[in-house]
Amino acid sequence: MFKNAYIQRVYEKVSKRDSDQQEFLQAVQEVFESLEPVVERHPEYENAAILERLVEPERLVKFRVAWVDDSGKVQVNRGYRVQFNSAIGPYKGGLRFHPTVSESVVKFLGFEQILKNSLTTLPMGGGKGGSDFDPKGKSDAEVMRFCQAFMTELQRHIGQFTDVPAGDINVGSREIGYLFGQYKRVRDEYSGVLTGKNLEFGGSLVRTEATGYGLCYYTQEALKVLRNDSFKDKTVVISGSGNVAIFAAQKAISLGANVVTVSDSNGYIYDPQGIDVELVKRIKLEQRGRIKEYADLTDHAGVEYHEGCEGIWTVPCNIALPCATQNEINEQSARTLVENGCTVVCEGANMPSTPEAISVYKNANVLYGPAKAANAGGVAVSGLEMSQNSYRLSWSFGEADKKLQDIMQNIVSNSLAAAKEYGAEGDLMTGANIAGFEKVAQAMLAQGVL
Ligand code: NDP
Protein backbone atom coordinates (compact mmCIF):
# COMPACT_ATOMS: atom_id res chain seq x y z
CA MET A 1 0.00 0.00 0.00
CA PHE A 2 2.87 2.40 0.85
CA LYS A 3 5.92 2.85 -1.39
CA ASN A 4 8.23 3.52 1.54
CA ALA A 5 9.27 0.25 3.22
CA TYR A 6 9.55 1.73 6.72
CA ILE A 7 6.05 3.22 6.60
CA GLN A 8 4.66 -0.01 5.16
CA ARG A 9 6.24 -2.03 7.97
CA VAL A 10 4.88 0.23 10.71
CA TYR A 11 1.42 0.32 9.14
CA GLU A 12 1.32 -3.48 8.88
CA LYS A 13 2.29 -3.76 12.51
CA VAL A 14 -0.33 -1.31 13.75
CA SER A 15 -3.07 -2.77 11.56
CA LYS A 16 -2.34 -6.24 12.92
CA ARG A 17 -2.14 -5.11 16.51
CA ASP A 18 -5.24 -2.90 16.37
CA SER A 19 -7.12 -4.77 13.66
CA ASP A 20 -10.54 -4.00 15.19
CA GLN A 21 -9.94 -0.23 15.34
CA GLN A 22 -11.20 0.91 11.97
CA GLU A 23 -11.42 4.66 12.69
CA PHE A 24 -7.95 4.72 14.24
CA LEU A 25 -6.40 2.85 11.30
CA GLN A 26 -8.11 5.22 8.86
CA ALA A 27 -6.56 8.23 10.62
CA VAL A 28 -3.10 6.63 10.70
CA GLN A 29 -3.26 5.67 7.03
CA GLU A 30 -4.15 9.19 5.94
CA VAL A 31 -1.25 10.69 7.87
CA PHE A 32 1.25 8.05 6.74
CA GLU A 33 0.41 8.70 3.08
CA SER A 34 1.64 12.26 3.53
CA LEU A 35 4.81 11.34 5.39
CA GLU A 36 6.62 9.23 2.75
CA PRO A 37 8.84 12.06 1.47
CA VAL A 38 9.59 13.16 5.03
CA VAL A 39 10.87 9.82 6.30
CA GLU A 40 12.87 9.42 3.10
CA ARG A 41 14.63 12.70 3.75
CA HIS A 42 15.09 11.96 7.47
CA PRO A 43 16.46 8.46 8.09
CA GLU A 44 16.98 9.44 11.73
CA TYR A 45 13.22 9.07 12.25
CA GLU A 46 13.38 5.38 11.38
CA ASN A 47 16.49 4.88 13.51
CA ALA A 48 14.67 6.34 16.50
CA ALA A 49 11.42 4.45 15.71
CA ILE A 50 9.49 7.73 15.66
CA LEU A 51 6.52 6.36 13.70
CA GLU A 52 6.22 3.24 15.87
CA ARG A 53 6.10 5.49 18.91
CA LEU A 54 3.75 8.00 17.30
CA VAL A 55 1.02 5.37 16.75
CA GLU A 56 1.27 3.91 20.25
CA PRO A 57 -0.38 6.03 22.99
CA GLU A 58 1.78 6.86 25.97
CA ARG A 59 -1.15 5.76 28.12
CA LEU A 60 -4.78 4.71 27.67
CA VAL A 61 -7.12 4.47 30.62
CA LYS A 62 -10.47 2.77 30.45
CA PHE A 63 -12.77 2.83 33.46
CA ARG A 64 -16.18 2.02 34.85
CA VAL A 65 -18.58 4.92 35.45
CA ALA A 66 -21.45 3.88 37.73
CA TRP A 67 -24.21 6.38 38.51
CA VAL A 68 -27.85 6.42 39.61
CA ASP A 69 -30.62 7.59 37.25
CA ASP A 70 -33.74 9.53 38.26
CA SER A 71 -35.72 6.34 38.82
CA GLY A 72 -33.12 5.09 41.30
CA LYS A 73 -31.66 2.51 38.91
CA VAL A 74 -27.89 2.02 38.78
CA GLN A 75 -26.43 2.66 35.32
CA VAL A 76 -22.97 1.64 34.16
CA ASN A 77 -21.03 3.34 31.35
CA ARG A 78 -17.48 3.08 30.16
CA GLY A 79 -15.06 6.02 30.34
CA TYR A 80 -11.83 6.55 28.38
CA ARG A 81 -8.85 8.86 28.32
CA VAL A 82 -6.07 8.39 25.81
CA GLN A 83 -2.87 10.30 26.59
CA PHE A 84 -1.31 9.95 23.19
CA ASN A 85 1.76 12.13 22.98
CA SER A 86 3.30 14.72 25.33
CA ALA A 87 6.41 15.64 23.30
CA ILE A 88 5.43 19.29 22.89
CA GLY A 89 3.20 19.93 25.91
CA PRO A 90 0.64 18.52 28.34
CA TYR A 91 -1.95 16.22 26.77
CA LYS A 92 -4.82 18.29 25.42
CA GLY A 93 -8.03 17.25 23.70
CA GLY A 94 -11.75 17.04 24.25
CA LEU A 95 -14.17 14.64 25.91
CA ARG A 96 -16.97 13.13 23.82
CA PHE A 97 -20.16 11.66 25.28
CA HIS A 98 -21.89 9.57 22.60
CA PRO A 99 -23.04 5.94 22.31
CA THR A 100 -20.53 5.40 19.47
CA VAL A 101 -17.51 6.25 21.64
CA SER A 102 -15.08 3.32 21.71
CA GLU A 103 -11.34 2.74 22.06
CA SER A 104 -11.00 3.14 18.29
CA VAL A 105 -12.87 6.46 18.25
CA VAL A 106 -10.89 8.03 21.11
CA LYS A 107 -7.64 6.78 19.56
CA PHE A 108 -8.41 8.25 16.13
CA LEU A 109 -9.35 11.55 17.74
CA GLY A 110 -6.30 11.53 20.04
CA PHE A 111 -3.95 10.69 17.17
CA GLU A 112 -5.32 13.52 15.03
CA GLN A 113 -5.04 15.82 18.03
CA ILE A 114 -1.24 15.36 18.24
CA LEU A 115 -0.72 16.93 14.82
CA LYS A 116 -3.55 19.44 15.17
CA ASN A 117 -2.17 20.82 18.42
CA SER A 118 1.28 21.02 16.90
CA LEU A 119 -0.13 23.03 13.98
CA THR A 120 -1.51 25.68 16.33
CA THR A 121 2.14 26.38 17.34
CA LEU A 122 1.01 26.36 21.01
CA PRO A 123 2.67 24.00 23.52
CA MET A 124 0.07 21.22 23.71
CA GLY A 125 0.42 17.45 23.36
CA GLY A 126 -2.31 15.15 22.06
CA GLY A 127 -5.06 13.47 24.06
CA LYS A 128 -8.77 12.69 23.90
CA GLY A 129 -11.41 10.93 25.94
CA GLY A 130 -15.06 10.41 26.62
CA SER A 131 -17.73 7.89 27.33
CA ASP A 132 -20.45 5.87 25.64
CA PHE A 133 -22.93 7.79 27.84
CA ASP A 134 -25.78 9.32 25.80
CA PRO A 135 -27.03 12.61 27.29
CA LYS A 136 -30.04 12.65 24.93
CA GLY A 137 -33.24 12.40 26.94
CA LYS A 138 -31.43 12.62 30.29
CA SER A 139 -32.42 15.17 32.91
CA ASP A 140 -29.99 17.85 34.11
CA ALA A 141 -29.64 16.00 37.40
CA GLU A 142 -28.74 12.77 35.59
CA VAL A 143 -26.14 14.54 33.45
CA MET A 144 -24.68 16.08 36.62
CA ARG A 145 -24.50 12.74 38.45
CA PHE A 146 -22.89 11.12 35.43
CA CYS A 147 -20.29 13.92 35.11
CA GLN A 148 -19.48 13.68 38.81
CA ALA A 149 -19.02 9.91 38.61
CA PHE A 150 -16.90 10.26 35.45
CA MET A 151 -14.64 12.89 37.01
CA THR A 152 -14.26 10.98 40.28
CA GLU A 153 -12.15 8.50 38.32
CA LEU A 154 -10.71 10.80 35.62
CA GLN A 155 -9.29 13.26 38.18
CA ARG A 156 -6.51 10.88 39.17
CA HIS A 157 -5.15 10.96 35.60
CA ILE A 158 -5.34 14.68 34.72
CA GLY A 159 -4.00 18.02 35.99
CA GLN A 160 -3.16 21.52 34.77
CA PHE A 161 0.44 20.49 33.94
CA THR A 162 -0.24 16.93 32.74
CA ASP A 163 -3.53 16.66 30.88
CA VAL A 164 -6.17 19.33 30.25
CA PRO A 165 -9.42 18.02 28.71
CA ALA A 166 -12.08 20.14 26.97
CA GLY A 167 -15.46 19.55 25.29
CA ASP A 168 -16.42 17.70 22.12
CA ILE A 169 -19.68 16.14 20.93
CA ASN A 170 -22.32 16.46 23.70
CA VAL A 171 -19.83 18.02 26.10
CA GLY A 172 -20.55 21.74 26.24
CA SER A 173 -20.53 24.37 28.96
CA ARG A 174 -23.08 22.53 31.13
CA GLU A 175 -20.99 19.36 31.24
CA ILE A 176 -17.67 21.22 31.63
CA GLY A 177 -19.19 23.07 34.62
CA TYR A 178 -20.19 19.83 36.37
CA LEU A 179 -16.84 18.19 35.56
CA PHE A 180 -14.88 21.22 36.82
CA GLY A 181 -16.94 21.39 40.03
CA GLN A 182 -16.27 17.75 40.81
CA TYR A 183 -12.52 18.06 40.10
CA LYS A 184 -12.34 21.03 42.46
CA ARG A 185 -14.25 19.16 45.16
CA VAL A 186 -12.26 15.94 44.98
CA ARG A 187 -8.82 17.53 44.60
CA ASP A 188 -9.46 20.62 46.72
CA GLU A 189 -7.71 22.59 44.00
CA TYR A 190 -8.84 25.49 41.82
CA SER A 191 -6.81 25.25 38.63
CA GLY A 192 -7.16 25.44 34.86
CA VAL A 193 -7.59 21.68 34.54
CA LEU A 194 -10.34 21.94 31.92
CA THR A 195 -10.96 24.40 29.11
CA GLY A 196 -14.30 25.52 27.74
CA LYS A 197 -15.25 26.79 31.19
CA ASN A 198 -17.85 29.50 31.68
CA LEU A 199 -16.51 33.04 31.91
CA GLU A 200 -17.34 33.30 35.63
CA PHE A 201 -14.83 30.61 36.55
CA GLY A 202 -11.88 30.98 34.25
CA GLY A 203 -13.25 30.57 30.74
CA SER A 204 -11.98 32.52 27.75
CA LEU A 205 -13.98 34.78 25.51
CA VAL A 206 -14.26 33.33 21.97
CA ARG A 207 -13.82 29.69 23.18
CA THR A 208 -17.50 28.93 22.44
CA GLU A 209 -17.26 30.37 18.93
CA ALA A 210 -13.66 29.30 18.27
CA THR A 211 -13.98 26.12 16.22
CA GLY A 212 -16.70 27.46 13.92
CA TYR A 213 -15.15 30.90 13.56
CA GLY A 214 -11.70 29.37 13.12
CA LEU A 215 -13.02 27.10 10.38
CA CYS A 216 -14.26 30.15 8.47
CA TYR A 217 -11.04 32.11 9.04
CA TYR A 218 -9.09 29.13 7.70
CA THR A 219 -11.39 28.72 4.69
CA GLN A 220 -11.30 32.44 3.96
CA GLU A 221 -7.50 32.49 4.05
CA ALA A 222 -7.17 29.38 1.87
CA LEU A 223 -9.66 30.83 -0.63
CA LYS A 224 -7.73 34.09 -0.76
CA VAL A 225 -4.29 32.52 -1.17
CA LEU A 226 -5.16 29.64 -3.48
CA ARG A 227 -8.12 30.99 -5.47
CA ASN A 228 -8.07 34.75 -5.03
CA ASP A 229 -11.66 34.33 -3.87
CA SER A 230 -13.82 34.71 -0.73
CA PHE A 231 -17.10 33.66 0.97
CA LYS A 232 -18.91 36.57 -0.66
CA ASP A 233 -22.12 35.47 -2.42
CA LYS A 234 -21.26 31.78 -2.06
CA THR A 235 -23.88 29.16 -1.24
CA VAL A 236 -22.70 27.13 1.74
CA VAL A 237 -23.91 23.73 2.97
CA ILE A 238 -23.21 23.06 6.65
CA SER A 239 -24.00 19.77 8.41
CA GLY A 240 -24.66 19.48 12.14
CA SER A 241 -26.34 22.01 14.39
CA GLY A 242 -24.12 21.87 17.44
CA ASN A 243 -21.38 24.12 18.69
CA VAL A 244 -19.18 23.97 15.58
CA ALA A 245 -21.99 24.18 13.00
CA ILE A 246 -23.77 27.11 14.65
CA PHE A 247 -20.73 29.37 14.89
CA ALA A 248 -19.44 28.36 11.46
CA ALA A 249 -22.81 29.39 10.03
CA GLN A 250 -22.76 32.67 11.94
CA LYS A 251 -19.28 33.59 10.70
CA ALA A 252 -19.84 32.43 7.10
CA ILE A 253 -22.96 34.62 6.94
CA SER A 254 -21.07 37.60 8.33
CA LEU A 255 -18.46 37.07 5.60
CA GLY A 256 -21.15 37.37 2.93
CA ALA A 257 -22.20 33.76 2.31
CA ASN A 258 -25.69 32.27 2.11
CA VAL A 259 -25.81 29.22 4.42
CA VAL A 260 -28.71 27.03 3.28
CA THR A 261 -28.59 23.93 5.51
CA VAL A 262 -28.14 22.61 9.05
CA SER A 263 -28.79 19.06 10.32
CA ASP A 264 -28.78 16.67 13.25
CA SER A 265 -28.57 12.90 13.43
CA ASN A 266 -32.24 12.57 12.36
CA GLY A 267 -32.37 14.82 9.29
CA TYR A 268 -31.58 18.14 7.66
CA ILE A 269 -33.15 21.55 7.04
CA TYR A 270 -32.91 23.29 3.67
CA ASP A 271 -33.65 27.00 3.85
CA PRO A 272 -33.09 28.71 0.47
CA GLN A 273 -33.43 32.19 2.04
CA GLY A 274 -30.57 31.47 4.41
CA ILE A 275 -30.43 29.75 7.79
CA ASP A 276 -31.66 31.81 10.73
CA VAL A 277 -28.81 31.13 13.18
CA GLU A 278 -30.57 32.67 16.18
CA LEU A 279 -33.45 30.23 15.68
CA VAL A 280 -31.06 27.28 15.48
CA LYS A 281 -29.40 28.45 18.71
CA ARG A 282 -32.79 28.66 20.42
CA ILE A 283 -33.81 25.17 19.33
CA LYS A 284 -30.51 23.37 19.85
CA LEU A 285 -28.69 25.24 22.60
CA GLU A 286 -31.50 26.62 24.76
CA GLN A 287 -34.25 24.02 24.32
CA ARG A 288 -32.05 21.01 23.49
CA GLY A 289 -34.64 20.25 20.78
CA ARG A 290 -34.46 18.59 17.35
CA ILE A 291 -33.61 20.44 14.15
CA LYS A 292 -36.90 19.45 12.47
CA GLU A 293 -38.60 22.03 14.75
CA TYR A 294 -36.91 24.74 12.62
CA ALA A 295 -39.43 24.09 9.83
CA ASP A 296 -42.38 24.80 12.17
CA LEU A 297 -40.87 27.80 13.93
CA THR A 298 -39.35 29.76 11.03
CA ASP A 299 -41.11 32.55 9.15
CA HIS A 300 -38.94 31.93 6.06
CA ALA A 301 -40.80 30.66 2.98
CA GLY A 302 -39.72 27.49 1.16
CA VAL A 303 -38.07 25.72 4.12
CA GLU A 304 -37.87 21.94 3.80
CA TYR A 305 -37.09 19.26 6.39
CA HIS A 306 -35.75 15.94 5.11
CA GLU A 307 -35.39 12.79 7.20
CA GLY A 308 -31.93 11.18 7.10
CA CYS A 309 -28.49 12.79 6.99
CA GLU A 310 -26.93 11.80 3.66
CA GLY A 311 -29.31 13.84 1.51
CA ILE A 312 -27.73 17.06 2.75
CA TRP A 313 -24.83 16.52 0.33
CA THR A 314 -27.25 16.58 -2.64
CA VAL A 315 -28.02 20.26 -1.97
CA PRO A 316 -26.14 22.30 -4.61
CA CYS A 317 -23.49 24.58 -3.10
CA ASN A 318 -20.14 26.26 -3.77
CA ILE A 319 -18.67 25.45 -0.34
CA ALA A 320 -19.34 22.48 1.97
CA LEU A 321 -18.43 22.67 5.67
CA PRO A 322 -19.13 19.27 7.30
CA CYS A 323 -19.52 19.97 11.05
CA ALA A 324 -21.29 16.88 12.49
CA THR A 325 -19.24 13.70 12.81
CA GLN A 326 -16.73 11.24 11.32
CA ASN A 327 -17.24 9.63 7.91
CA GLU A 328 -20.35 11.64 7.12
CA ILE A 329 -19.24 12.19 3.49
CA ASN A 330 -18.63 9.01 1.52
CA GLU A 331 -17.48 8.60 -2.08
CA GLN A 332 -20.97 8.93 -3.55
CA SER A 333 -21.77 12.05 -1.52
CA ALA A 334 -18.45 13.60 -2.57
CA ARG A 335 -19.22 12.88 -6.22
CA THR A 336 -22.66 14.45 -5.88
CA LEU A 337 -21.18 17.54 -4.24
CA VAL A 338 -18.70 17.97 -7.09
CA GLU A 339 -21.28 17.31 -9.82
CA ASN A 340 -23.48 20.01 -8.30
CA GLY A 341 -20.70 22.62 -8.42
CA CYS A 342 -19.02 22.40 -5.03
CA THR A 343 -15.37 23.48 -5.29
CA VAL A 344 -14.41 23.86 -1.63
CA VAL A 345 -14.67 21.38 1.28
CA CYS A 346 -13.25 22.45 4.64
CA GLU A 347 -13.82 20.22 7.64
CA GLY A 348 -15.24 21.43 10.97
CA ALA A 349 -15.91 17.89 12.21
CA ASN A 350 -13.07 15.43 12.81
CA MET A 351 -12.45 13.07 9.86
CA PRO A 352 -15.86 13.71 8.24
CA SER A 353 -14.67 12.53 4.80
CA THR A 354 -13.88 8.89 4.02
CA PRO A 355 -10.58 8.22 2.19
CA GLU A 356 -12.60 7.59 -1.01
CA ALA A 357 -14.30 10.98 -0.65
CA ILE A 358 -10.90 12.66 -0.28
CA SER A 359 -9.76 11.00 -3.53
CA VAL A 360 -12.80 12.44 -5.27
CA TYR A 361 -11.89 15.94 -4.01
CA LYS A 362 -8.31 15.53 -5.20
CA ASN A 363 -9.30 14.34 -8.66
CA ALA A 364 -11.78 17.19 -9.05
CA ASN A 365 -9.30 19.83 -7.84
CA VAL A 366 -11.54 20.73 -4.91
CA LEU A 367 -9.93 23.08 -2.38
CA TYR A 368 -9.79 20.61 0.52
CA GLY A 369 -9.06 21.82 4.06
CA PRO A 370 -8.51 18.79 6.32
CA ALA A 371 -9.99 18.71 9.82
CA LYS A 372 -6.76 18.76 11.78
CA ALA A 373 -5.95 22.14 10.25
CA ALA A 374 -9.37 23.62 9.54
CA ASN A 375 -10.93 22.90 12.94
CA ALA A 376 -7.85 23.67 15.06
CA GLY A 377 -9.36 26.97 16.19
CA GLY A 378 -11.14 25.30 19.11
CA VAL A 379 -8.05 23.85 20.67
CA ALA A 380 -6.08 26.99 19.81
CA VAL A 381 -8.40 29.12 21.94
CA SER A 382 -8.29 26.39 24.60
CA GLY A 383 -4.52 26.96 24.59
CA LEU A 384 -5.19 30.68 25.03
CA GLU A 385 -7.55 29.85 27.91
CA MET A 386 -4.72 27.89 29.58
CA SER A 387 -2.40 30.89 29.20
CA GLN A 388 -4.98 33.26 30.69
CA ASN A 389 -5.55 30.85 33.62
CA SER A 390 -1.79 30.72 34.28
CA TYR A 391 -1.46 34.51 34.16
CA ARG A 392 -4.75 34.90 36.06
CA LEU A 393 -5.99 37.47 33.56
CA SER A 394 -8.51 37.58 30.72
CA TRP A 395 -8.28 38.97 27.24
CA SER A 396 -11.11 40.90 25.58
CA PHE A 397 -13.21 39.29 22.84
CA GLY A 398 -11.37 41.35 20.24
CA GLU A 399 -7.93 40.33 21.52
CA ALA A 400 -8.76 36.62 21.62
CA ASP A 401 -10.50 36.76 18.23
CA LYS A 402 -7.49 38.47 16.66
CA LYS A 403 -5.16 35.81 18.06
CA LEU A 404 -7.48 33.13 16.64
CA GLN A 405 -7.44 34.76 13.20
CA ASP A 406 -3.64 34.97 13.25
CA ILE A 407 -3.32 31.32 14.26
CA MET A 408 -5.66 30.12 11.49
CA GLN A 409 -3.83 32.21 8.87
CA ASN A 410 -0.52 30.80 10.07
CA ILE A 411 -1.86 27.26 9.82
CA VAL A 412 -2.68 27.87 6.15
CA SER A 413 0.71 29.39 5.39
CA ASN A 414 2.70 26.79 7.37
CA SER A 415 0.78 23.98 5.66
CA LEU A 416 1.40 25.44 2.22
CA ALA A 417 5.10 26.00 2.98
CA ALA A 418 5.54 22.37 4.14
CA ALA A 419 3.65 21.07 1.10
CA LYS A 420 5.86 23.08 -1.23
CA GLU A 421 9.05 21.97 0.49
CA TYR A 422 8.13 18.32 -0.05
CA GLY A 423 6.91 18.67 -3.63
CA ALA A 424 3.15 18.82 -3.07
CA GLU A 425 2.52 22.47 -3.83
CA GLY A 426 -0.97 23.71 -2.94
CA ASP A 427 -1.94 20.48 -1.11
CA LEU A 428 -3.31 21.60 2.27
CA MET A 429 -3.74 18.04 3.56
CA THR A 430 -0.21 16.86 2.88
CA GLY A 431 1.13 20.16 4.17
CA ALA A 432 -0.85 19.99 7.44
CA ASN A 433 0.27 16.43 8.12
CA ILE A 434 3.92 17.25 7.45
CA ALA A 435 4.01 20.57 9.31
CA GLY A 436 2.27 19.05 12.34
CA PHE A 437 4.45 15.95 12.32
CA GLU A 438 7.87 17.55 11.93
CA LYS A 439 7.68 19.59 15.12
CA VAL A 440 6.55 16.58 17.17
CA ALA A 441 9.18 14.31 15.60
CA GLN A 442 11.98 16.79 16.34
CA ALA A 443 10.83 17.11 19.96
CA MET A 444 10.66 13.33 20.34
CA LEU A 445 14.18 12.95 18.92
CA ALA A 446 15.54 15.59 21.27
CA GLN A 447 13.94 14.00 24.34
CA GLY A 448 15.43 10.55 23.79
CA VAL A 449 13.79 7.13 23.80
CA LEU A 450 10.57 7.46 25.87
P1 NDP B 1 -22.17 19.06 19.35
O1 NDP B 1 -22.50 17.97 20.29
O2 NDP B 1 -22.34 20.46 19.79
O3 NDP B 1 -22.97 18.88 17.99
C1 NDP B 1 -22.82 17.73 17.21
C2 NDP B 1 -23.76 17.84 16.02
O4 NDP B 1 -23.48 16.77 15.13
C3 NDP B 1 -25.21 17.71 16.41
O5 NDP B 1 -25.98 18.43 15.49
C4 NDP B 1 -25.44 16.22 16.28
O6 NDP B 1 -26.79 15.86 16.10
C5 NDP B 1 -24.63 15.92 15.05
N1 NDP B 1 -24.21 14.50 15.08
C6 NDP B 1 -23.54 13.87 16.06
N2 NDP B 1 -23.35 12.57 15.76
C7 NDP B 1 -23.92 12.40 14.57
C8 NDP B 1 -24.08 11.28 13.73
N3 NDP B 1 -23.60 10.06 14.07
N4 NDP B 1 -24.71 11.47 12.54
C9 NDP B 1 -25.20 12.71 12.20
N5 NDP B 1 -25.08 13.79 12.96
C10 NDP B 1 -24.46 13.64 14.13
O7 NDP B 1 -20.66 18.78 18.92
P2 NDP B 1 -19.61 19.76 18.26
O8 NDP B 1 -20.30 20.74 17.39
O9 NDP B 1 -18.73 20.24 19.34
O10 NDP B 1 -18.74 18.75 17.39
C11 NDP B 1 -19.03 18.48 16.01
C12 NDP B 1 -17.78 17.93 15.35
O11 NDP B 1 -16.73 18.90 15.45
C13 NDP B 1 -17.21 16.66 15.95
O12 NDP B 1 -16.61 15.88 14.93
C14 NDP B 1 -16.11 17.17 16.88
O13 NDP B 1 -15.12 16.21 17.14
C15 NDP B 1 -15.58 18.31 16.03
N6 NDP B 1 -14.81 19.32 16.76
C16 NDP B 1 -15.36 20.01 17.81
C17 NDP B 1 -14.62 20.96 18.46
C18 NDP B 1 -15.21 21.82 19.52
O14 NDP B 1 -14.54 22.79 19.91
N7 NDP B 1 -16.42 21.57 20.00
C19 NDP B 1 -13.21 21.21 18.12
C20 NDP B 1 -12.75 20.49 16.94
C21 NDP B 1 -13.54 19.57 16.33
P3 NDP B 1 -27.65 15.21 17.30
O15 NDP B 1 -28.06 16.35 18.15
O16 NDP B 1 -28.75 14.50 16.64
O17 NDP B 1 -26.73 14.25 18.03
Description of the structure:
The protein is α/β, with parallel strands linked by helices and 450 residues long. The chain is 49% helix and 15% strand. The chain has 17 helices and 13 strands. The strands form 3 sheets. The protein has a 5-stranded mixed β-sheet with strand order 1-2-4-3-5. Strands 7-6-11-12-13 form a 5-stranded parallel β-sheet, with helices on both faces. Strands 8-9-10 form a 3-stranded antiparallel β-sheet, with no helix packed on it. Strand 8 and strand 9 form a beta hairpin. The longest helix has 25 residues. It binds NADPH dihydro-nicotinamide-adenine-dinucleotide phosphate. The site of NADPH dihydro-nicotinamide-adenine-dinucleotide phosphate has 23 residues, from helix 9.
Topology readout:
Blueprint: H1 5-17, H2 22-41, H3 43-47, H4 50-54, E1 59-68, E2 74-85, E3 91-97, H5 103-119, E4 125-131, H6 140-154, E5 163-167, H7 173-187, H8 207-227, E6 235-238, H9 243-254, E7 258-259, E8 261-263, E9 267-270, H10 277-286, H11 293-297, E10 304-307, E11 319-321, H12 331-339, E12 344-346, H13 355-363, E13 367-369, H14 371-374, H15 377-391, H16 397-421, H17 428-447
Parallel strand pairs: 3-4, 3-5, 6-7, 6-11, 11-12, 12-13
Antiparallel strand pairs: 1-2, 2-4, 8-9, 9-10
Helix pairs in contact: 1-2, 2-5, 2-17, 5-17, 6-7, 8-9, 8-15, 8-16, 9-10, 12-13, 15-16, 16-17
The structure holds NADPH dihydro-nicotinamide-adenine-dinucleotide phosphate.
NADPH dihydro-nicotinamide-adenine-dinucleotide phosphate (NDP) binds next to helix 9.
